Amino acid sequence: MTNIFVGLTAGIIFGLGLCLSGLADPAVVLDFLDVAGAWNPTLLFVMGAGLTVTLMGYRLVFGRGRPLFSPRFNLPTATAIDSPLISGAVIFGIGWGLAGYCPGPAIVSLASRRPEVFVFVIAMITGMIAVRWMRVRPAALPNAPRKV
């Protein structure tokens, strides 16, 4: 129960930060990407501030030796730069550039009740499900090649 409360609290703080910084507004993102037009550097400052807080947070948390609400750190073990990573990054970037949303701000923007946000979130969830289905499905087929 503690993990759910901690996750919910972190999510609310993250969502509030997105709203206060203006990143829940896709126009801010699209204006940042428009370097040849009306470029808006707001996103650069928000990312820089986020990176600074993250670096300090990592030093503080890892300096403790273990997390506050878990017996150990659950860190990713994959280090390979492979085609799923690259294709995922490309799809993410194209989607972000076209719509002005990435997953966090899109979820926060659902509160605006704008139809385009719902369309984006439905498409995003559909894509997530499709990727999981494609990764699991070949392993379920009898003669399909298996991922190593």
Describe the structure.
This protein is mostly helical and 148 residues long. It has one domain. It is 68% helix and 0% strand. The protein is built from 6 helices and no strands. α2 packs across α4 (83-99) and α5 (103-109) packs across α6 (115-140). The longest helix is centred in the last third of the chain and has 26 residues, at 115-140. The protein is globular, with a radius of gyration of 19 Å. The mean pLDDT is 85.
In short:
By secondary structure, the chain is an all-alpha fold.
Question: Topology, please?
Answer:
Elements: H1 2-21, H2 26-33, H3 42-64, H4 83-99, H5 103-109, H6 115-140
Helix pairs in contact: 2-4, 5-6
What are the defining features of this structure?
about 0% strand; single chain; globular; mainly alpha; about 150 residues
User: How is the main sheet built?
Assistant: none
| Residues in helix, % | 55-70%
Content of β-strand: under 5%
User: Overall pLDDT, averaged?
Assistant: 85
Radius of gyration: 19 Å
